[in-house]
Amino acid sequence: VHGEQPPHLGVMDDHDMAFKVARAEDGVPDLTKIPDIDNAGISLNLKTRFQRDEIYTCCGTILVACNPFKRLNCFEADDVMRYKGKRFGGEPPHIFATAEATFDNIRQGEGNQSVVISGESGSGKTETTKLILQYLTAVTSNPVWIEQQIMEANIVLEAFGNARTLRNNNSSRFGKFTQVAFSPECNIVGCMIEDYLLEKSRISFQAEGERNYHVFYQVVAGGRAVADDKARFLLEPAKAYRYLSQSSCVAIEGIDDVLMLADLRRAMTVLDMSGEMQQHIFSLVSAVLLLGNLEFEDLDGESVDFTSSDVAVLHKVCQLLRTDQARLQKALSFRQIVVRGSASDIPLKIGDARANRDSAAQTIYERLFKTLIAHINSKTVPPEGMRKFIGVLDIFGFENFKVNSFEQLCINYTNEKLHRYFNHFCFALEQEEYQREGIVCEHFMWSDNQECLELIDKPKLCVLSFLDEAAALKTSTDEDFIAKVNKALPDVSPKYFVVPTDRARVKTHFGIKHYAGLVYYQCDGFIAKNRNTQMALLNEALQTSSIPFVDALGRFVEARPETATTNSSRSTQSHGQLFKEQLNSLHATLSATTPWYVRCIKTN
């Protein structure tokens, strides 16, 4: 693989024999050198090295990175120079060695490269991504502003896309693929970021001990520390907001949100966000928090009214967004349906109004997040014709919680896709190469998860198809969906689809045997989360804003991937369909590159 050494598939030459005496208890730098590569041997080898603060270990060209949860002095300028220009394997395993290998392939004209970083939450994927970018900017001759913008973009993305979870104080709640573009002289000329599946549900709900996105606490704490900002953004203490007070966690030990806001402002300035634009962004952040404080009052079981406190909250929201209050009030208490080209506004019941309130807040925040990424890309876009790149994929790891919802299905679907891609590249293609060259080797067995993928995404008889069918029918319920999949899919994929044995759970759950383990999905809210609700009334309300930045959010249309194959517009596609398109586009991009793999491990 990569012109270096292929995965160990049962072939042992004289060079390998010389290392046969290597022992896992010695903590060797390359796992392929120990005689038995099994779980026990790998764990012992990694543990031995970890205890010596040697957090990196190779398995051929695959890098294993163990999160040390402390600062190590092995990422300094001297360390960059140690790996610069060195062949892969010539120095001890390090993320800089992998970064140098990708850059060397770019220099040698070996085509575009990609680094796929995987691991569970808290394993260090985001930090690993930043270290690769740090190395690439250090070993190339670039204008200072390009380096600054690439590195400062991470601060903005972490503020708006990261949050404290039970597993990690700075967990990325979205995936991203960063393409660093190079000139013919192999200097960095730009950078583009593609984002995947922001966890919108976190806006309105956080589990006990978790936090919402960092930027909310930064704006509240940092803004309230400055009298003008406190008044300008109408800020209250964090505990005054429903969207911040559901869990017991408002602050993170050792993190100063006031200082973090200062860092965020500096990063925004480097990325050419004017002071006025920053004010509009923070006004939107404050408005999203205020929306969560709306309670509504039931009128007759069929519609809602706004309490006096609701009216006061709504006035503040409109003051921040400079929108028409009557239009926004209508958008929050009615839904619009279109029949044969004629639109009708239907009043919402109190439960639906509260769900609609959360959807509105999530929609505004998601559009803000995507607008920020679009702005960053507009400032770092490479010149026309500069197509050489190194891509770095920092994607969410496999998830299996006490309650797994639509987000976990999409996340685990992504990991199934990447797992198959890894197996195909590292094993299937290598075996084919051995056979073509006449090399006799022991046939290596690996887990082929194609059937599991088809259970999720193969047209007509799969989870996503049944979910789309349910979402298309306004009268369908989550119970209807679960009844259909639990009846039809056991016959389609008896190996991977699991119907709960508990009678009570049969009506609310279904299970999938993923490569990483069995996950039961709780279907409450599945249909609503999959529907691509257009919220026409919200769009109309936002378009009344006298602030162009806010008005643009009401007209927001997300671009489709170039590899999209359906004729449907994004407005008529479900979130599942849109996400599937994104994954197919990502797979096509990765398949056109030479991939390198970094497996991050959260140590215990």
SSE order and pairing:
Elements (H helix, E strand, L loop, with lengths): L13 H4 L21 H13 L4 E4 L2 E6 L9 H7 L11 H13 L5 E6 L6 H14 L5 H18 E2 L7 E2 L2 E8 L5 E9 L17 H11 L2 H6 L9 H4 L11 H14 L4 H17 L5 E2 L5 E2 L2 H14 L3 H9 E6 L2 E6 L2 H31 L7 E7 L11 H31 L13 H8 L5 H10 L5 H15 L4 E2 L4 H4 L2 E6 L2 E6 L3 H5 L5 H7 L5 H7 L20 H17 L2 E9 L2
Q: Care to describe what's here?
A:
This protein is of the alpha+beta class. The chain is built from 23 helices and 16 strands. The protein has a seven-stranded mixed beta sheet, with helices on both faces. β4 (162-163) and β5 (171-172) form a beta hairpin. The longest helix is centred in the middle third of the chain and has 31 residues, at 350-380. The two termini are 31 Å apart.
Mean pLDDT: 91
Number of strands: 16
The portion of residues assigned to helices is 40-55%
Structural class category: alpha+beta
Give Rg in angstroms: 26 Å
State the shape: globular
Termini separation: 31 Å
Main β-sheet, spatial strand arrangement: 1-2-16-3-12-6-7
Task: Report low-confidence residues grouped into runs of 5 or more.
Answer: 1-20
Percent range for β-strand residues: 5-15%
SS summary, helix count: 23
Profile the largest sheet. 7 strands, mixed
